[in-house]
Specification:
It is found in: Membrane. It is a multi-pass membrane protein. Belongs to the TVP23 family. Keywords: Membrane, Transmembrane, Transmembrane helix. This is Golgi apparatus membrane protein TVP23 homolog. With 195 residues, the chain is mostly helical. The chain has one domain. It contains six helices and two strands. A hairpin with a 5-residue loop joins strand 1 and strand 2. Helix 2 packs parallel to helix 4, helix 3 packs parallel to helix 5 and helix 4 packs antiparallel against helix 5. The N terminus is likely disordered.
Length: 195
Amino acid sequence: PLQDSDDIEDVSLFDADDDLSRRSKKSKIRHPVASFFHLFFRVSAIVVYLLCELLTSSFIACMVTIILLLSCDFWAVKNVTGRLMVGLRWWNQVDDDGRSHWVFEARKVSAQGSKTSSEAESRIFWLGLITCPMIWVIFAFSALFSFKVKWLAVVVMGVVLQGANLYGYIRCKVGSRKNLTSMATNYLGKQFLRQ
């Protein structure tokens, strides 16, 4: 007969073995395909943007390719990689009255206090989620100051799509807007009191 997992407790004989197994669980990538696609679409869109004028003279082909990559990235990050890699998800829900509500959700920690996401996946997720929109913002200023107006529309799409995911996942991570404001206020207050 099968027993519940709550009834079985795995106890190591040596603390060092326990620490080693804990470290290997934290650094192990549990969802390699999700981790790959989390970065693939983002980096591909940036690489295509940088090399597009060298590879082809067709602006339309470049624009469509970049927007398709950005759209695939938005969908993959919002619907798959955020849920698998860090246990966060967000979406818009419409009530029966027709009112729109944004829902920001975080996976609950299990009874044993362990999360199902690893530190390595979390680093990959947040690094990609924060770095790429910053690169698109740099591209936006570059296109604006070099008067490449036709590229500005493509770059704005990059900023908007990747910025929306960044905003959504930050809201999932820290909670509601009120919590975000109070968290910033508490942090600044603690810094002031330390000095």
